[in-house]
Recover the amino acids of this structure.
């Protein structure tokens, strides 16, 4: 199952972990899972859409955008803050 069957150590040793410092994540079947509660599932598809899902709350967010660099630390942090705020509002917290 994507939500639980991933290797956190493999993620930490990989080349994308530095873009998500301190965030426990694993990768499985082309999806990344933030191992926080509630779990956040996302995919990175540059330059195609980026999808974020919070299964428990039935929230799906699709981000359509472009940026100069495929991986940009500032954009990733901004997107994570935006997703967090949207999920917070949509979940009614």
């Amino acid at each position: 199952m994507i939500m639980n069957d991933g290797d956190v150590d493999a993620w930490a040793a990989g080349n994308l972990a530095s873009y998500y410092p301190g965030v426990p994540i694993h990768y499985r079947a082309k999806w990344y899972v933030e191992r926080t509660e509630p779990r956040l599932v996302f995919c990175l598809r540059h330059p195609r859409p980026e999808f974020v899902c919070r299964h428990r709350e039935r929230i799906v967010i699709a981000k359509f955008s472009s940026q100069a660099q495929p991986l940009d630390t500032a954009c990733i942090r901004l997107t994570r803050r935006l997703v967090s705020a949207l999920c917070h509002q949509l979940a009614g917290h």
About this structure: Residues 8-90 form one domain.
